[in-house]
C-alpha cells in the first residue's frame, strides 16, 4: 500500500513541477528596432512583437507601453496580425495600451507583430520606449497562456526597449506620416523571430521556489506514511 501511495505522489509531483516550469516566464515583448535616430518633426515606426517559447501557446495579451510625451506624439497605431482581435488605447498621454486576443480554439505560437507604433519627434534629445511590466501584476503588461487559468507568462526581465536619439538631420529610420490614432486592424510585414533572452535572477528564483515548496510538502507526507 505504501509503495502505491509513494508512486502516486511521485507522478503527481513530476506533473506539477513540469507544469509549473512550463508555464512560468515563457513569453516577452520585443521592440523592433532597438535603437532609432530620427530628426525632430519627423516620424519613426516601432514594431511591438510578441515572442513565445516554442512549446508555449497564447490566447491573448495586454501590453502597456510607456513613452515620454515631451519628446514624442503618437502619430498612429497600426494593428498587427499576431492576434486576430487587437484594440489600442492612446487616450492617456505617455501610455499606449494594446489589447489582443484570439478567436475560439486558435491559440497563437511563435513570434509575431502585435502592432506598429508611429511616433512623431517633437524636440532634440534622447529617450526610450519601454514596456510597463511587474511580475504577477494584473494592472500592467500580461501575456496569457492557453491554459485553464489563462496564466500570465510574461518574463518582465526579458522585455527589451527602444532607445531613441532625436537630432536635426533626417535619416533612413525617418518616415513621414499624417495618419491619426486608430483601432483599425492592418496587416503588417513579417517579423523576424528572435531567441528568447535569458531570464533574470528574481524570475529564476521564483520559478524554482514553487517546485521546492512542493517537494518539501511531499517529503513530509512520505515521512509520515513511511
Architecture overview:
It is a single chain. 21% of the residues lie in helices and 35% in strands. With 226 residues, it is of the alpha+beta class. It has a domain of 156 residues: Immunoglobulin-like (Sandwich), CATH 2.60.40. The strands form two sheets. Strands 2, 4, 6, 7, 9, 10 and 11 form a seven-stranded mixed sheet that branches. Strands 1-3-8-5 form a four-stranded antiparallel sheet, with no helix packed on it. The longest helix is centred in the C-terminal third of the chain and has 25 residues. The radius of gyration is 21 Å and the shape is elongated. About 23% of the residues have low confidence.
The amount of helix comes to 10-25%
Please state the structural category: alpha+beta
Q: N-to-C SSE series?
A: HEEEEEEEEEEEH
How much is the average pLDDT? Answer: 78
CATH class of the domain at 27-182: Mainly Beta
